[in-house]
Each structure stands twice: as structure tokens, then as C-alpha cells.
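Inputs:
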Amino acid sequence: MNPASPGTPGRVQGPAPSQPDLRAPARFISMDAAVENKPLRIALVGVPNCGKTALFNRLTGSRQKVANYPGVTVERREGELVSTDGRSLRVLDLPGTYSLNPTTLDEAITRDVLLGRLADTPAPDLVVCVVDAVHLPIGLRLALEVKRLGLPMVLALNRMDVARRRGVKIDAAWLCGELGVPVVPTVAVRRGGADALVEVIEAGRWIAPRAFIPAGQESSREDADQIQHDLQGLLSASGYSPPRENPWFGRIDALLLHPVAGLLILLAVLFVMFQAVFSWAEAPMTWIEGAMNALGVFTAAHLPAGPLASLLVNGVIGGAGSVLVFLPQIVILFFFILALEDSGYLPRAAYLLDRLMGSVGLSGRAFIPLLSSHACAIPGIMATRTIPNWRDRLTTIMIAPLMTCSARLPVYGLLIAALIPAKSIGPFNQQGLVLFTLYAAGIVSALLVAFVMKQFARDRQYSPLMLELPDFQWPHAGNLLLGLWERVKIFMSRVGGIILALMIVLWFLSSYPEPPPGATGPAIQYSLAGRLGAMLEYVFAPIGFNWQIAIALVPGLAAREVAVAALGTVYAMSAAGDDLSAALEPVIANTWSLATGASLLAWYVFAPQCLSTLAVVKRETNSWRYPLIMAGYLFALAYIASFITFRVVRAWA
Amino acid sequence: MKTDPSLHDAGARRHLSLSDLYRGESATVAGLVESAHIDSGRDASQSLITRLRDLGFVPGARCEVVARMWPGGNPIAVRIGGSTFALRRAEAAAVRVQLAHEPGVARDPGPRAGASAVAA
């Protein structure tokens, strides 16, 4: 996605003459289609929550997440729009910003792209400034600031339907005359809601306003004063009045943001979420398990016994299948996170927790990255870019892996199901309670680590909260399903890709060399994996791990859930003839002590068993120092926690 | 921050900041000042003021405190120009306000001084 086209010194009028067939519908094709040599570059700019990402989807047809809290668009998103005459237009979705005077990394990226400062992204040929008509002043102010850069610009007046309903009167034609740039009303969430915008873009009738700022330079404080003056003049001349308030929003916020009731509701929401992960997933998990077992039996029955049958049944079906079982739990977890995100609740949770998190040196803004980390630490760590203060951001990055990510669910799920009886305590499922405890252990230890880091910090520069709490809305069902589908695809491709490959390698290592004739123990003990496990057992014996666990932890470094698949393969390989397709869960229930299981659970609360997370930390902090510190402190904590857990449970049980 | 029981007096009202308002109270923004709570230099204070103005905290704008976190209103949630923002005490202290009501009219007689006590 990096054309060799030299940055045309921009600021020119649309290079192609307008076409006669302007009214014909535009044809959109996806990004991987052939592109012309010099595509025009269009950048979308707007404040957070103005519907910019929805408009981007509308323009490019690209499928991506639309969410409601500031800063979801942390990645560079580019799509392609092919005009009716076959020209290729590149659309870049810039991170939302309130101003070109940035306070976060995200906002700095937007400014740098517009000023042409980024090496791989030349300044755009056209800026589409997206202004939410419902919240006109904030958006219009940014538009005035962008206009002063002198780039060709079109203003998209988005959410016009909602604005009209709420009594905002704004005349696009009048605004166009005042600003001197085209102003196009849009409704990004409606099909065809951006057609008028596409016409203007295609027509090439863009106007480069007069530049007030020398190319490549930032605006000064005097500029900001002038912009504010212009904005107030514009607003009073337009007869603008704020939108009518929806009285329900105020009432709901009074409850949700209440110091006591709000926190209780937040706790209840999180508790229901984690209970649901266990109880709703039960039935579909049984189906998947049954299907995988049947497949194993079927394969074993129809293939001649030998290495191939063993590879397929033990390595592929036994290994990957034991991870696939956890798909329903992951879907449910993501369903809750996506729905909370879409509804606008997440920034409110950040508001509620700001004080509490501040006491351990975190910003309330850290809540959103940390909640995302419950799905996966990688998007969580990337979302920390919306935290303005470097110290706050680093602390959040360092504790993100302590949040219970969805890759731990297969491990927790397996051990809890095997070792904890499924009885009810009051209205709660005992297994769900243990799971909740594990989540809580991750969160509490993260707060403790943050507190320790705070004591070491030298510069405690104050950094404001200033978080927008967007208006409530019902989660959009289409968006929700799309988001879930993306997650399922990622999970399935992991099962089909890295997990499957590692399982085949592990199957090979645990099958060869074959046992000598007359050997009595299980074959795996004589294999390479068996010998490696025997060596690692010296390290892990003090915390109660047997050699099977020790082997499983090694491929488990690539991704946490691989350990479950690896255990499945290792146990399948060590079982005698008939038991080949036996499920892992009863094996663990019969052969492990409660202390060993609890110790492994404690290990997984802390251990950095995920190389991708460390790689992302390296990328986001731009240094090897922090991923190394992270791996060191997490392994140390894991060993200590497992050691204590093992000893305590053994003495007590 | 000093706790001044005379804040109800007409003469003291111009010293009121957004952080002194009760929950549910409306006011008009009078201006932005450097916050006494921010000790990391003039630049940080100035960029805070600039950002608050960018968000719509401009003289004459109507605002309402939707929620106050306990204790001490840190942070608060403010409704302004059809948007809601969460501000910490330090940010809210930078916004000078004038009450929408005249003193004595249907006001909660609770201890404002207590509400604005700072847990440092």
C-alpha cells in the first residue's frame, strides 16, 4: 500500500476534468484490486465519534470496526474507491482528533499526515473534513483549523438526519458560501448516504482554501485564538442553537455515573459477563466436543493403524480440536465487549474508575485498553496510544498482559472443568466463581504492579482526563455480528495455522525416536519431547508440574491456548491403544492433584506465554528494554505465585 | 484549595469554578483560567486551556454538571453544547462559571464548602 508516486506538491485543483456521467453510481472495489500508477489520496479528518469511520466504510466498502469511544481508530486504515471513469482514489481514515494541537499519539499522527511529515504518507490531495451536525461547534472548529492548512478540502456534514430530528438548523449551502469550500450533507450509516459526497469527490471541483500557515508548520496560539474568533462569528451568524436534549440520556447518566450505584452496576455488568462466558457456552461446547470425538473415532476406524492415523487422530484432531472447543466462550466474551463498546458505556466505566485507578498511578483512560486486553493483550496494548502521558501509557502497557485474555480461557476452562465440581453456590455456578476469582487475581495483581511502578517513577507530570462520554445508542446489530465474525475468523485461522503446525511438530517430537524393543513405559517417554520434558521437570517440580505440563509449556510460549492442544497431544500419545481418542478432561481429573492444577492456574495468571504480545510491546515502546523487563517480571511472578499456590493447596487439601 | 463558606454570596459568585458546582446545577462559562492544581508548568496549563476551549468551554456556553464522583467531585461529568465530558477536579477548576440561578432560588442548601474540599 505504498505507491512510489512522488508527493505532488498538492494544493492543486482536481487533476481530472469533470466527467459528463457524474450521476452514474460509483463502483467500489476492494483494496487488493489493481491500482493505477498515481492514485489520488483522500484523507478523512474529524473529531472522535463524528461517524468518520462509518463514512469510510460507506465510501470504500471496507469491513472494519465502528465503535463509540474516542480512539478506536488507532491503526492506519486505508481503502480504495474507484470512480466511474476508472480512476483510483485512495481513502485514508485518520485517527479522530479535536485539534491539530495534539495531546495524544493518535492525534499527533493525524496532524503529521496533514502536514506531510510522515515519511511513508505524503500529504493528501484532498481532505474530507467530517463534521457531526449534532455537535456542530466542535467539528466546525476543527474544520476551520484544517482549512487554514490550505489543502483542497470538502466538508461532509454528517448525521444530518439526527441533527434535524433534534432541532439543529444548519444550511449547507450557506455554510459553503461562508467557508468557501464545498459542504455536502451525509448520513454515513444509511445506504446511499454518501452518494452526494462521492459525486463532489469525483467531479474534482475541489477548492484549495487560502493557506494561513506556511507548508509543514504547526499553528500557533494566535492562530488558535483567530480560529475561535472565526468560529464564534460563524455560529452566531448561522443562528445555531444546540440540539434538543433527550431527557432520558440525563436520567440514565445520573444512574450510571452515580458514585455508588454506577460502580455497583459496573461490577454487576462485569460479573454477568464472566458468568455468561461459562454458563451460556456449556451447550455449544458439548456439541463441538462430541463432534470432534466422533471425527476422531471415525478417522481411526477408516484409516489403517500407523503413523498417518496417529498424526491425524492425536496430532490434528486431538490437538487442534481441544482448542476449538473454546470457540463459544470466546464468542460470548467478544459479544459483551463489542456491545459495551458500541453502546457508549465503556468511557463511562473509565469515568467511574478514574479515581480508583489514579490511586495506583493509572489514568481512567487506561480502562478501555485494559478491558480490551481481556479479549487479547495485543489490541489492548495498541489502544494505549490514546493515553496522552508516556508514564501512564507505559504502566498500562506493562500490566496489560495480566488481564485475562481469551487465549487463557481454554487453559482455565479445561482445568476448572476437570478439577472443580460444577455445583451451585446460591444462584452462582461454582466453576464460574473460580473463573471470576482468576480474572480478579489478574486485575488485583495488575493494580499492585502499577502501584509499584508508580513508586519508581521520577517525573509525575500531570495529565488531564478530558474524556468524551458519547451519547448512548443501541449497539448496531450488523456491526456487532461483523465484529464477532472477524474474531471467529482470527481464532479459526490461529487454530488452523499456528496451532495446527505446532501440533504436528509436537506430534513428531513425541513420536520419534521410537521406543527400543521391549520398553515398558509409554512410547513418549523415549521420544525427544519426553527427554526434554524430563529435563524441564527439574525446573518445574518445585511448583508441582509433571513432565507432561513441562512439555506443553514450551510450544505454549507461541500462544497460550497451544498448551491445551499440546497437553491433548502429549496425553493422547502416552495413552495405551484403546484410549487414543479419550478426552483430556477426565485424564486430568484422574491423574492430577488439585495442588498441581491450582499451581498451573496460578502460573497462567502471570506467565508471559505469548510471544506476539512481547513483539507488540517492542514495537509500541520502540525498545527491547520493556519487553525484556516485562518477560522477566512476569516469569518471576508466575514462578513465585505457582510455588506458593502449590505449597498452600497441598498442605490444605 | 480554600473552602470559603461565603461562596453563596453574590460578591463571591464570580470566583466560582466548574468544580464547585453541585450535581444537577447549571451555569454559564465565564472564562478559563490557569488551574492552581496543575504544577507542571505554564505550558501544560496553557495547552489545557486551549483544549478546553476546543471542546466548547467558551464564555457564554451553558453547561450542567451531570455527575460528580465521590469524594470531592473528582472527576465530574459535564454536559455542554450537546456533548458530555469527564473532567478531573484540576481541569474543572480551570473553568470559571456563573450560576444560571439567582442565589436563594430553589437551591440545595448543602455545604458547598464540604463538597469542594480537596483530597490532595
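Chain A touches chain B at residues 98-99, 101, 103, 134-135, 137-138, 141-142, 166, 221, 224, 228, 232, 242-243, 245, 250, 253-254, 257-260, 262, 347, 350-352, 354-355, 364, 461-462, 464-471 (CB under 8 Å). Flag for discussion at group meeting.
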